[in-house]
Amino acid sequence: MEKKKNHTYQDVYDVFTRYIHNKSDINLIQKAYEFAADKHAGQIRKSGDPYIIHLIEVAYIIATLQGGPTTIAAGFLHDTIEDCEVTKEEIAKNFNDDIAEIVFCLTKIKALSHNRRHDKDFVAEGHRKIFLGMAKDIRVIIIKLADRLHNMRTLEFQTNEKKVSISQETLDVYVPIADRLGLSSIKGELEDLCIMYLHPIEYQKIITYLDQNMKNREDSIKHLQKKIADMLLQSKIPFEISARIKHPSSIYKKLVDKNKTLDEIYDIFALRIITKTEINCYEILGLIHSEYRPLPGRFKDYIAVPKPNMYQSLHTTVIDRDSTILEIQIRTYEMDEIAEGGIAAHWRYKENMKYDPKQEQKEIMEKLHWFSDFVSLSNEDESAMEYMNTLQHEIFGANIYCFTPHGKVIDLPTGATPLDFAYKIHSKVGDQAVGALVNNSLVSLNTELKTGDVVEIKTNPQSNGPNEGWLKLVKTNQAKSHIRKWLLKKNADFLRETNIEKGKESLREVFRENKINEHKMMDYLSDSVLKNFQVDNLDELFIAISSKNIQPSSIIDYLKLNRDTFEDLLIKKSVSSKNKSLSSSQAVLVKGKTNILCNLSSCCCPIPGDKIVGYITQGKGVKVHRIDCPNIANQSRRLIDVTWNPNYENASCSVDISIKANDRDNLIIDIMNLLAQNKVGCNKLISKKHTSTNTTSILIAINVIDINHFNNIKNQIINIPSVYEVERVTH
Ligand code: MN
User: Fold this and answer.
1) Is CB count within 10 Å lower at the N or C end of the chain?
2) What is the DSSP string of 652-712?
């Protein structure tokens, strides 16, 4: 860490006068500064600096977070009771009760830190009181964080023992608080300093590595940044793009948590793209994924599902052709402000508004529901260790982190089982799970997982798959909804298969009765049969027979009536060879005519295989609609019979579909991945979140070849976890 030059009172003044203009407020701050300078006069910090420097730095940090006059003044005064024998009453008299109460709280917290011991229970009790003290007023937390940040910046002047104990306390208590409040720059700096003092050798290795490799990586990132910027410029979506480097502490965590070497960490750099609207974010994501291959499992949709500290952004990791791997974050200006300033962005001082700590806390609790747990927990009478455990598990560790045998981290809610783990890896792994190894020993599928467990799922493709009992074994909604869907589909599939077989058998019987070669039955069931009985395919024909919607004898009657069909496939062959001469550039033909222009309508987007009808336009040929399109209802006089051109050789038609799903992480990427795997193009995506119902509706336009292709894709989409409805859209 380079040694920064100390700030002066003038620097603090320059920052807060950007947003504080009331003369009396400015005077209050000035007075607090002078009071502190007077009381601390002659005191020297271990760094050799006069004590007031510490108070100026603390006030400076608070001012950069846009703290109000009370908070800045209390920042200047925070050490006066402890170090200068000033009383709470004296502060109340010179300033006001509000400031006196805040300083008093901070003094109590400081006293606890001073009495730090190695006794674990005692440390926990101390932490508990720190939380209790801070929970009263968010301004206390902000000042305490600013105080701790400056103390960490100047920790080099402390003894080795203190370096370690203060860093450990910072890591245990203040880093999680800063993180939960979304104060990402403070959290990052604190954590870097903690790692530097707690793991100096590893920290140095990272710094050296960054120094040596920065140049190379920077060049390829700059190159990629330019390419992405060019692409976005063409799209006309507003954006700002910047490259940034990860904090050494987050690199350290990756090295340790994932047991990787520095060369294996590829997302040291990240690109950040800031744009106007939420939809712009997804549009940019779509453009980037169309150009660069995303790394599977790395997409995070924190817009649809914000982090508990209100953080919102899209994260993805992509691979360039020269195999540069890069993390990209996409968010709006508003999201960026919250990402950088967290709660402070919300809490930021607004001039001429009376500050009410109770009201403020209430608002914050509404925004951050964890904060209310945090406060109500503080009131319960638990032993200190229990309290810390609850805090760590329920609030700071709502998740547990497990590993695949390859070291990939899977995060799960507490209480999750190997089945949750399996579904988190892939729905197939979940469906085929038969057992699990946790830390190399075989366990049952209902074992509760702990952070650090290495979990290996045993699968068997021949297994029976999920059953009702599994619903009780899983904790995550993702696994639950998938199991439910699987069970439903299994029932439906089973029923369908049975009906197809039944229908086939009764038709076969009638063939036998009529002395028609039953082995040739399938050949007789030509397209014209399907068309006559108005079914799309053979399966549906058999189902209709089994459900008695079609009498098997009527099929025989039809075959007998249409002798040309009866004369077997010969005719079919000659028809298809004749058709080859027809135009292959037009998807639809008017019956009996080859030279009439037919266009597909864009309201109902017909695709080959749909039942269609032509609508004669004035001067623009024939518009082809789906037969049930509401736009041509009551237009029978202008309708004309049309048929799909069997020789049409075009690639695909565009279909608009609407998807409804319960909101969750990675939903859109799962849909996009599915389309990509099926090589289905997508030329539009609009997603809308409904916070009241916690659902998302998505409109996409996909390119398909025909109705079978479409149905296949549709069935796959409906099987994506949390999706509950997929429908074609008619405009
Ligand atoms: Mn201090």
Assistant:
1) C
2) -EEEEEEEEEE--TTHHHHHHHHHHHTT--EEEEEEEEETTTTEEEEEEEEEESSHHHHHH
CB atoms within 10 A of CB 480: 18
CA of 150 to the centre of ligand 1 (A): 8
For residue 175, the CA-to-ligand 1 centroid distance in Å is 17
Question: Which residues are part of the catalytic machinery?
Answer: 82-83
CA–CA separation, 671 vs 706, rounded Å?
20
> Is residue 37 domain-shared with residue 132, that is, in the same domain?
yes
Q: How far is the CA of 361 from the centre of ligand 1 (A)?
A: 24
**Same-domain check for residues 230 and 314:** yes
pTM score, two decimals? 0.51
Same domain as 214, residue 85? no
Q: How far is the CA of 594 from the centre of ligand 1 (A)?
A: 88
Find the domain containing 685 and state its range. 653-728
Q: Are residues 300 and 162 in the same domain?
A: no
- Ligand 1: centre distance to CA 358 (Å): 25
58-113 residue pLDDT tens: 999 999 888 889 999 999 999 998 888 889 999 999 999 989 988 988 887 776 65
Report the 3 state secondary structure along 551-583: CHHHHHHHHHHCHHHHCCHHHHHHHHHHHCCCC
Per-residue pLDDT at 573 exceeds 60: no
Distances in Å between the Cα of 653 and the Cα atoms of 446, 455, 583, 608, 646 are: 47, 45, 18, 8, 15
In a domain, 682, yes or no: yes
118 and 209 co-located in one domain? no
Residues 154 and 215 grouped into a single domain: no
